[in-house]
Amino acid sequence: FPAVFSSRIAVLLRCLLWCAAGLLPARSAAGPLDFDLPPQPAADALLAFSHQAKIEVLFSFDELRQVKSAGVTGRYEPENALVHLLRDTGFAARRNGKGKFVVTPLARPTGSIKGRLLTAEGAPARGVRVALPGTRQAMTTTDEQGEVDIASIPPGTYRLFAAGTGFEPLKMTDLQVLPNRVLTLDTQVLRAAEDLVRLEPYVVEGDPVPLRPFDGSRASPGPQRAAGNLDLPRSGDGPLPYMIYDRDQITRSGVVNLNEFLQREVLETDARTTGQDFNQGNVFRNSVFGGPTNLKLRGFGADETVVLVNGRRMPEMLTGFSNESDYRAPDVNLIPLSLVQQVEVLPASASALYSGNAVGGVINIVLRPEADENATEVAATYTNALGGFGAPQSSVSLTHGRTLLDGALRMRLNASFIRARPATEAQLGFHHGRIREPESLTDAVYGATPTVRGADGAALFGPGTSSLTSVAPGADGTGGLAAFAGRPGVRSLDLFDPPGGMAYSPSSVDFPYGRRQRRAVFVGSAVYDILPWAQIGLDVIHARTVVNRGYDVLTGDLALRADSPFNPFAQEVFVSLNETAPVLGENYSEARLQFSSAVLGLIVKLPAKWQVALDTQYAHNVAKYRGLAGVDAGRWQELVDQGLYNPLRDTQVHGPPGEFYDRALIYFGGRGRFATLGDYDTLDAAVRLTNQLLVLPTGRGVVNLGADYRRNHLAGTEAVKRFADGSVADESSQWDGRTLQRFSLFGELQAPLLPDRRRPHWLQAADADLAVRYVAADTSRETNVAPTLGLKFDLAGGLSVRGSFTTSNRFPTPQMSRGVSAPGSSGASAPEYARILDPLRNQNYDILASDAIDPDLRAESAITQTVGLVYQRGETHRARIGVDFVDTRKTHELVGLDPQMVINLEELLPGRVVREPLEPGDTHRAGRVSSVLTGAVNMAWRHSQSWNASADYAWTECLGGSLEFYGRLVYTQRYDRQVQPTSAMVDELRQPDGSASELLKYRANFGASWTNHGYGFGLDGHYFHSRILPTQEWPSQGSDQIKPFWQFDTYVQCDLGRWLPWDRARHRLRGQLRINNLFGAGFPKYANESTGAGAQPYGDWRGRTYSLSLTATF
Questions:
Q1: Does position 706 have pLDDT exceeding 90, yes or no?
Q2: Taking burial as the number of CB atoms within 10 A of a residue's CB, which of 28, 857, 1020, 1062 is the most buried?
């Protein structure tokens, strides 16, 4: 089986050869034949033999082309000719039952290598990676006794390399392996690593390593470098329950941006796929400036997850023109996927380790070190839908590394380019199935063409006729009453279809489920060894992103007087319509985001393995926007009254007059200008005193001491909205910025609890991780102390027990900007429009929302405890099972209320909701909401409990490759919250109130794969459990829950370089084809989904997609 599969491409060639051979006339092979076969590749020689002998030969073209045949000239029996031809090739031919020859490899005698690695103290060096290039067993690790056993090695001369965390790499050469013999190496003692040691470069030749290693946490971090990863090396098997996602997993995912990978693989994140949350009137909220919102670990908010890059805080994406209480999460898509080495996720509180609001957890993105010296890598990924429409996403990345000055200077340059075009409503059809006839004849309808209704319900076409009609498709508004023939009582309910490909409105057929983006990222890094004991490093990144979302769709409800020249009804009518500005172009509304960051680091090596690291990071992002701020309703109506604007035309086909652009439209900053809506910068400085080989009474440990300083500054913004003539519109407002400063002192110690001589025989190891951090800020209420303690005990037989205790005193995150209030006002910020679902009326509509700034917010306190078991065992058959229980309790929980949450909690927060009185004849329970007060508030407490489980199995010698199975499960057992001390406790899992949305009880990933040195294939599965909905959403949903969702993906990988005539030791080409949502599973129904699609988007909005990836190294 593996031989056939490992030559997947060659199978096709062989099939063609068999078919061709079958066309040859049959001939008896009883007598000798004349042969003229010179020495040549064996595959070509066999083809020539088959042609000359008129006999079919079955063989592996891929394997036989690698060896050279002997020459055969003269008269031979065909069977003897084959014996001579295959002499010294390692292959032999035999006849099968049908008279054909089958060429198979001869069984070759092999040898093996055994040895043992010890630490400087004489203890076994466990888990050290050992590489033997040129063999199928290219990579293995030492066992619990430090021993390594590499079997089935073809005879020859080899080199062996060993590397492990905290040790200098070991290199052994000229190892002679003899057939049927065991080469026993002398016991080797690994030297402790000198962090700034410069090694002689070498190239590992031979077959590439398997396409996906079993254990993602095995990646060796290498020596710490200046401006490199500031954090200590982390492992999935330590006292704290880290999850490690390695580079091969990222490549295997086939995505073009990092956020999509995190959403898919990190089960603790928000399961919902991000799209465009539509808010009429707020033209840029989440649609152009919002960072990824999936980074919410364990159901906590985005501001409770700390995102790091190489151990440093990744700057947030902030604009100065926003009332939102929502935290603008860092945009992880600014990090090129080609530069990511691994992602470390700690789904537990960790303020002591990482400062900030690390209540939900921490995500540390570790970049690739300068390991690819004097090499160039080109990686490209293209993905698109398989549903008969185009919504492509693509990325191209070029990375080049160079070593200069005899290895003292190491440089790397990277350029990455990403393009994405979202799917639209025309392609997906979510809204088409949700069109409903309005309940009342007086309701305004905004459809494909304008809808007309008589004033006070008056008949439009004479007594007894309908009071409603709509403009015929294609009408130009000059056809009089005849243009409405056959349309009495007909309302335009179809979706609006303006010119172009995208239009930002859920009532449009071109509504985009996402953003059209163009992004270019440039990264440069350099590390220079100033002296043998000093190193300086510099990392620079600059990114430019352009975001479009298509035409802005403006809605209007205009009165057309009876005496208007456009009015054929001889009475006053009201016209509701959608309008665009086609003269400005589809991409007029455009956001441009520029992000720049520079890290300067210095490492000084001190005696006794100590080192000092000084580090500074400066980041700056500027957000600019050109677009429409809306339309002035009064001026729009004036154009109608003056006979300059005809509302009775098909606005999909016929654009508005020039006066509409000049007098009614409102522009940010002015027509054709880009307005600066955000100017945000951060300055981080850190000093570290580290010793990763500290000699303690209990053994060798790691200590990390230091201090951090962080300054955030958001410049004030004047959000000027102007008419085309430059005059200022009434909606213009001014926003203040703010500067925040914080510093902290911290220490972390990783060490054995007991010396080896004091440990009982059944206890293999006992390790501890202790950390504490003191944080001070501008105000005393933001000052806190946060400790962390983790313990792990390794028992005999591969079983480990671990647990941790962490605290977090999360201070109130102050708004970096707020609208400037007029003297004597209440202090609330300027209002903005937001769309909500009113549960008392079961209606969606727009309201005014403004933030109420509470100066008396208290810091919340959180305690997280974890306990877990890890079992791992085996070499050829490797198994690992891990289970961790996480319990978090919070008091005075800080919650940012968005408009919908305020509506959902109206009973508990009645003072934040303002409703209009019920109108006569209105049968609803309450009047419409006119405005709400959002902002941060303290809730009483929250208690959450969850289980994280993982299982991995690998058979490393399965049919010439590695067979692997994996499974991940997150089970949220409890998620309770009390809003106020006097209110009832709410079970957000079973009886939610809507304040903790997107919370799933179960979520799982699972899959299987088989890989060898040249090929790989696999199947991945994803499961999303059902979600119970708040009672107010049951009527529209028609159920109390969102149904479960399953998705299956498949992929195949191949080393394409094996077919190219180049040096495989220096040049490689790998490819992957991946199909996501293989069976085309449809998203489950969710009537109140924020885009109005009526479906809960798990996975890609596009449905079934394919992804093609190529990576070339030279």
A1: yes
A2: 1020
CATH, domain range 297-423+514-550+587-627+672-1113: 2.40.170.20
Which pLDDT does position 206 carry in this prediction? Answer: 39
Q: Return d(Cα 790, Cα 453) in angstroms, integer.
A: 70
Provide the token pair at 539: 């990392």
- How confident is the model at residue 1094, as a pLDDT? 86
- Residue showing tokens 């609006």: 496
Token output for 364: 């540390």
Please identify which residue in the block is written with the tokens 């080797």.
188
Encoding tokens for residue 720? Answer: 């000027």
CA–CA separation, 188 and 185 (whole Å) = 8
Considering the chain, what percentage of its residues have pLDDT values greater than 90? 41
Distance of CA 25 to the CA centre of its chain: 59
Confidence of residue 131 (pLDDT cuts 50, 70, 90): confident
CB 325 within 8 A of CB 301: no
Cα distance between residue 414 and residue 404, in whole Å = 17
CA gap 461, 727 in Å, rounded: 43
For the segment 1074-1114, what is each residue's pLDDT rounded down to a tens digit? Answer: 999 999 999 999 988 877 788 888 888 899 999 999 999 88
Looking at residue 538, its pLDDT comes to 96
Answer yes or no: are the C-beta atoms of 690 and 703 closer than 8 Å.
yes
Q: 209: closest CA among 807, 1016, 757, 955? A: 1016
What does each C-alpha distance from 1017 to 135, 208, 919, 1007 come to in angstroms?
21, 16, 64, 11
Place of tokens 């519109």: 729
Question: Please, what is the end-to-end C-alpha distance for the chain in angstroms?
Answer: 32
What six digits make up the tokens of 57? 């030969």
As a whole number of angstroms, the distance between CA 142 and CA 124 comes to 9
What is the CATH code of the structural domain delimited by 2-105?
3.55.50.30
Q: Which CATH superfamily is domain 111-223 in?
A: Carboxypeptidase-like, regulatory domain (2.60.40.1120)
Per-residue HEC secondary structure of 1037-1052 comes to HCCCEECCEEEEEEEE
Determine the distance from the C-alpha atom of residue 833 to the mean position of all C-alpha atoms in its chain, rounded to a whole number: 30
In a 3-state reduction of DSSP, which class is residue 669? coil
The answer, yes or no, to whether residue 1059 has pLDDT greater than 50, is yes
Angle at 329 between CA 327 and CA 334, to 5 degrees: 155
At 510, is the pLDDT very low, low, confident or very high (cuts 50, 70, 90)?
A: very high
The mean of the pLDDT values for the chain is: 83
Most confidently predicted of 161-170, 265-274, 642-651: 642-651
Task: Give the pLDDT band of residue 358 (cuts 50, 70, 90).
Answer: confident
Please tell me the distance from the alpha carbon of residue 128 to that of residue 1077, in angstroms, as a whole number.
38
Token output for 431: 């809204």
Is-contact 137 158, C-beta < 8 A?
no
Residue type (1 letter), 473 = P
Query: What is residue 204's predicted lDDT score, i.e. its pLDDT?
Result: 39
**Which residues on neighbouring strands pair with residue 872, listed in sequence order?**
880
SS (H, E, C) 285-319: CCCCCCCCCCCCHHHCCHHHEEEEECCEECCCCCC
Distances (CA, A) of 468 to 445, 475, 488, 490: 11, 17, 6, 7
pLDDT digits (tens, 9 = 90+) for 529-544: 999 899 999 999 999 9
817 φ, ψ to 5°? -150, 160
CA distance 124 to 727: 78
Q: Where are the domains of the chain?
A: 2-105, 111-223, 297-423+514-550+587-627+672-1113
- What gap in Å lies between CA 814 and CA 232, rounded to an integer? 30
The Cα–Cα gap between 498 and 588 comes to 15
Per-residue tokens: 1016: 């790989």
Q: What is the DSSP letter of 934?
A: E
Query: Do 841 and 784 contact (CB within 8 A), yes or no?
Result: no
| Mean pLDDT along residues 265-289 | 57
Q: Percent of the chain having pLDDT more than 70?
A: 86
